[in-house]
Amino acid sequence: xxxxxxxxxxxxxxxxxxxxxxxxxxxxxxxxxxxxxxxxxxxxxxxxxxxxxxxxxxxxxxxxxxxxxxxxxxxxxxxxxxxxxxxxxxxxxxxxxxxxxxxxxxxxxxxxxxxxxxxxxxxxxxxxxxxxxxxxxxxxxxxxxxxxxxxxxxxxxxxxxxxxxxxxxxxxxxxxxxxxxxxxxxxxxxxxxxxxxxxxxxxxxxxxxxxxxxxxxxxxxxxxxxxxxxxxxxxxxxxxxxxxxxxxxxxxxxxxxxxxxxxxxxxxxxxxxxxxxxxxxxxxxxxxxxxxxxxxxxxxxxxxxxxxxxxxxxxxxxxxxxxxxxxxxxxxxxxxxxxxxxxxxxxxxxxxxxxxxxxxxxxxxxxxxxxxx
Length: 373
Prior knowledge:
Strand order of the largest sheet: 3-2-1-4-5-6-14-15
Distance between the termini: 19 Å
Largest sheet: 8 strands, mixed
Low-confidence stretches: none
Mean pLDDT: 96
Helix content: 25-40%
Strand content: 15-25%
């Protein structure tokens, strides 16, 4: 199969779809890879590194799309890239279509087939291709929040870990999944006072077993959220419903109960955000202040630690890309129900139920589409 890797063009997105190591593995399986010039510079990989791995270097994205059958990216294609999509293309990347109706409309109109990393499932449950970036984003959320709490950045002037004689900052984490767990791990390491809220008792039990008395766990009722958010110095939004728009757990009215200069970090912003007052920001201008509360809502947080993030991503995605290339995407999806869950668009139809619901589109089951091809 001919596999294309365009350079990421989203604001401050320095990751790349495939590392030279991953390219070498694909070449060893008798596939061809074309990489846009400069695509790997954000992770310290030069064109020569890709050529040494066996790839061909293309002068621009249009050449990559012209030649490739499978397009491997990290983030969703921007408007200019979407004009290059054709019906024969298989697009494999993070899409988050529930919060991006224009993106969905363009892919549907192109006739391309799109697999979203974030909805691929594992046999025992979980989201194996989303997990690496959730781990990165969870840990980064505390770094970002700690920085935003500094007075020079509009925050309360609170040091999360405190010092002897001064209490530590209070961190409230909404959601105890991969993002929430990793946020807690980092916050505890800094010495913060950490509380995690979740609606799953099994998740809360698991977190209690891991961290013992170092974190407080609480069932996520509306009353508990309102009360804890009002006490927090830093609130992390770490809620995810696979494929669906994130629920709005914190309303604008709740901001009035928060301490002036408190910080919220909305890691769910890719799926529309779990704070009513959230809107996407970039690494260039990551925060804004609304009603006295600092909002950090960068939609591609792991892009700032591109090398770590890319290698973590490829460790998870390479087996999937190999399966799609070796078997052909139709057979690969027929054989693997978890991978089939990643199919979001096929033949101009939305093939994920939560995505269809969020977009107000008719849902066509993926297996139905595959049986008709």
